[in-house]
Design brief:
Blueprint (H helix, E strand, L loop, with lengths): L4 H11 L4 H9 L5 H5 L3 H10 L6 H10 L3 H11 L8 H16 L6 H16 L7
């Protein structure tokens, strides 16, 4: 069974939480994490996506959000359809940027990553005994 890219990112972030030295070592190699992208402005994310060939805006993003089940599938479709030549961590940027912009601009259009985020929140609440089960 293959793990999704967002599950892998979440696992890495959880395992390295609080270990700034290891996080910074990953960043120095060019690895981008969700926590980093979430700190960026929309304009910074768009500039990065533009630099790797993903020239999107709100109109294009709305259309794509309605046509795809996840930010990962959206970014893979863009890579294939727009014939992007992504290398190294550009692939991470493509889905991370798409995921964050989707969450910010169109939270009313659900995707698999949003569902997974909610499930993880539920698991955390359950483990902290903050969720009542009936």
């Amino acid at each position: 069974m293959e793990l999704s890219v967002w599950a892998l990112n979440r696992i890495i972030e959880q395992q390295l939480a609080g270990d700034e030295a290891r996080l910074n070592a990953l960043r120095a190699k060019g690895k981008v994490l969700m926590m980093d992208v979430r700190k960026m402005t929309d304009e910074e994310i768009l500039n990065k996506l533009n630099s790797i060939g993903m020239r999107i805006n709100r109109e294009i993003m709305r259309k794509l959000c309605r046509e795809h089940i996840s930010a990962d599938s959206l970014s893979k479709w863009l890579e294939k359809d727009w014939k992007l030549k992504l290398k190294n961590y550009d692939e991470d940027w493509s889905w991370l940027g798409a995921k964050v912009l989707w969450e910010r601009w169109y939270p009313e259009i659900p995707n698999l990553e949003m569902l997974d985020d909610k499930m993880q929140e539920g698991y955390e609440l359950l483990s902290e005994n903050k969720l009542l089960m009936h």
